[in-house]
Design the sequence.
């Protein structure tokens, strides 16, 4: 298993995008910090520097796109380039191959959050030195708000990623799974108002994966359950169930796929 995981990271290391895209994300974080600093100077602006910092200067959004790209290409390119045959001809089972890819994505996702958090703290020190970790925001200390944001973003990232990985096992073309993941993630934001109206009208819609994407916000604002119609603990468990279900479907499809 360790050999498979090392091979996955070797493949990632050979891709230029593995190193370029995180730098692009940090550039976006820097731009967000500069713009927020400028807007905060205007007394009539509603922009809150502390809130932007606890959102890692928008990095939580960009990390989702990074993982959609990594999750889709890590599997589908094995089929596109035919390298999956080399793996399966060795002593490894299909389940071991797929499990090694899941673990690789998990480590990569943790790495992205760690470097984004460190860079966000660096930006805070440079642009917002007055923000204290023990000051209060939304009934939480800043450090607690930051931690809750990371936990919520990590879990919802895996909701999207598990869906993308499942699609990757069903289709040979990475573009399909990338498109599906991006559309799903964008839809969670674009359909927010319509989703709220739909839940009010049809209560069963509260169990949909789209509603679970509100977990990141509801962890910090439990009163949001009036909108989602689910308590935070229920939403957390349902999100984990969806992640497990999508991965299980992907595992089933991958281990029974015959057209290698």
Sequence:
């Amino acid at each position: 298993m360790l050999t498979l995981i090392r091979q996955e990271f070797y493949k990632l290391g050979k891709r230029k995008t593995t190193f370029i895209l995180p730098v692009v994300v940090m550039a976006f974080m820097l731009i967000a910090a500069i713009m927020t600093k400028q807007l905060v100077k205007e007394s009539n602006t509603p922009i809150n520097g502390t809130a932007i910092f606890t959102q890692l200067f928008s990095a939580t959004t960009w990390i989702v796109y990074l993982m959609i790209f990594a999750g889709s290409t890590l599997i589908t390119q094995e089929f596109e380039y035919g390298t999956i045959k080399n793996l399966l001809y060795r002593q490894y089972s299909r389940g071991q191959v797929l499990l090694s890819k899941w673990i690789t994505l998990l480590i990569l996702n943790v790495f992205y959050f760690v470097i984004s958090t460190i860079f966000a703290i660096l930006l805070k020190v440079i642009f917002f030195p007055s923000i204290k970790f023990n000051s209060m925001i939304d009934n939480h200390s800043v450090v607690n708000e930051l931690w809750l944001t990371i936990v919520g973003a990590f879990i919802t990232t895996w909701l999207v990623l598990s869906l993308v990985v499942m699609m990757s096992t069903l289709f040979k073309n990475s573009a399909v799974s990338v498109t599906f993941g991006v559309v799903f993630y964008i839809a969670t934001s674009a359909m927010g108002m319509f989703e709220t109206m739909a839940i009010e009208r049809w209560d069963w819609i509260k169990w949909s994966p789209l509603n679970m994407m509100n977990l990141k916000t509801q962890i910090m604002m439990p009163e949001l359950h009036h909108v989602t119609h689910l308590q935070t603990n229920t939403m957390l468990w349902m999100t984990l169930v969806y992640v497990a279900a999508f991965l299980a479907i992907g595992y089933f499809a991958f281990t029974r796929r015959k057209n290698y």
Summary: The chain has a mean pLDDT of 82.
